[in-house]
Design brief:
Glutathione S-transferase Yfyf (Class Pi), Chain A, domain 2; binds adenosine-5'-triphosphate; DNA replication; 2 domains; Rossmann fold; globular; single chain; 11 helices; alpha/beta; six-stranded antiparallel beta sheet; cytoplasm; single-stranded DNA binding; SOS response
Length: 378
């Protein structure tokens, strides 16, 4: 599966842009602020129906315009179950519901879309996965599981909606006891989503750790052993019991203080907290390995090689690590790859010697993209 062509209308800093893509490697070269990341964002939107950093849709609309439109044509490889092309159109209008269409028909729910076109994005600030609070790690978990399991995504949506209602009720009660029985009803309704999500998160960790270890060895060549454990308040206490235990605390603090929205992943290196002991280099290798492990899991779960988006990796990673990463992703074991860079020389070195049918190079400047006339003349 790969993206064959792309049309951006009033998206970020693009007024109108049409592109025909390579099924293998697409390199976007241009100065800082030219619009390279925005282009990757457009690809991510088409695959996932939303922004990669959960930025609200209104920010996708070009300044001064009322709406944006993205169109992408996905082609399928011969061995893929489907042989036709899929046309995805996303229409974003300010103050209106976003519309996502597949081959002319609008989806009713985003859950119908997620996972059809698996995607992994590697960005310079991925080290936040290790250094920041638990939310970003849960997002990695949820992103991976949602792309391989639509039931997981619908349970997650249901849980989040109920959680928001529960928190709103706790606020409304303003420290008073709930005499309506509504809190009990929410707790009951949350039980099924909690059980499903907990089980899937638990089952995810084993294979994910295995793939992480493999990727880490390939990227770093180091011998330290890295691991992940899944932390949840629900490991020790069943859901309804936990809610009953926490009822007083929730009432006083006016929010839900326990649940799967508090789960976390703990990363370790040789048994120690990775955040405390890893060197800068080890940290970079680790986060790259996390993303490569995610790639392999998605590939396994969707039976399609995901699209891989590599944003600005040259500037933020050292040469050796970039070389190892690129050797890996440009091997035949990966599907379609998008790379951005500020330096044309580095991209030239990267594609040097590669068959010209395998890649395309695009020049990006101030919201305009030009494909090189003759990509072989590098
Ligand atoms: N909604 C929008 N409307 C118009 N312009 C926007 C919008 N959102 C972002 N931009 C502009 O897009 C530009 C940033 O583009 P982008 O992040 O893709 O750059 P880049 O080429 O990846 O740069 P770098 O190499 O620094 O990462 C900025 O000039 C920003 O002001």
């Amino acid at each position: 599966m790969h993206l064959t062509s792309l049309i951006l209308t009033q998206f970020k800093n693009y007024e109108f842009q049409r592109l025909t893509l390579s099924p293998r490697l697409n390199c976007f070269v241009g100065a800082n602020g030219a619009g390279k990341t925005n282009l990757l964002e457009a690809v991510y939107y088409l695959c996932m129906g939303k922004s990669y950093n959960s930025s609200p849709d209104q920010y996708a609309v070009r300044h001064g315009d009322d709406g944006s439109r993205l169109e992408g044509l996905f082609g399928f490889d011969a061995e893929d179950a489907k042989s036709e092309k899929d046309r995805i159109v996303i229409k974003i209008q300010k103050r209106k519901r976003k519309i996502i269409e597949r081959n002319g028909t609008a989806y009713e729910r985003l859950t119908e879309h997620v996972g059809r076109y698996p995607v992994v994005i590697i960005v310079p600030d991925d080290s936040r996965l290790v250094l920041e609070g638990s939310e970003i790690r849960r997002r990695l978990l949820d992103n991976s599981l949602s792309q391989t399991d639509p039931v997981y995504l619908s349970h997650l949506v249901a849980y989040n909606k109920l959680l928001a209602n529960r928190n709103a009720l706790l606020k409304e009660l303003d420290g008073r006891k709930d005499t309506t029985g509504l809190l009990d009803i929410y707790d009951q309704q949350m039980q099924a989503p909690v059980a499903y999500i907990l089980e899937k998160r638990q089952a995810f960790i084993g294979p994910f750790t295995e793939l992480l270890t493999e990727a880490y060895a390939a990227i770093s060549g180091e011998r330290e052993s890295v691991a992940i454990t899944y932390k949840s308040q629900l490991h020790d206490t069943p859901w309804l019991e936990l809610m009953a235990e926490r009822r007083e605390k929730d009432r006083v603090l006016q929010r839900t203080t326990a649940g799967i929205h508090r789960d976390d992943l703990v990363f370790t290196q040789d048994g120690h907290p990775l955040r405390r002991v890893a060197s800068q280099g080890q940290l970079k290798s680790f986060v790259l390995s996390l993303k490569l492990a995610q790639y392999r899991l998605l590939e396994r779960g969707t039976r399609r090689p995901p699209i891989l988006l590599l944003d600005d990796i040259f500037d933020k990673l050292d040469r050796d690590r970039v070389r190892q990463l690129l050797e890996l992703v440009l091997s035949s074991a990966f599907g379609q790859v998008f790379i951005t860079d500020t330096d044309p020389e580095r991209v030239t070195a990267l594609i040097d010697g590669k068959d010209a049918t395998d890649w395309k190079r695009f020049l990006v400047a101030e919201g305009k993209i030009e494909q090189e006339e003759d990509s072989t003349a590098v």
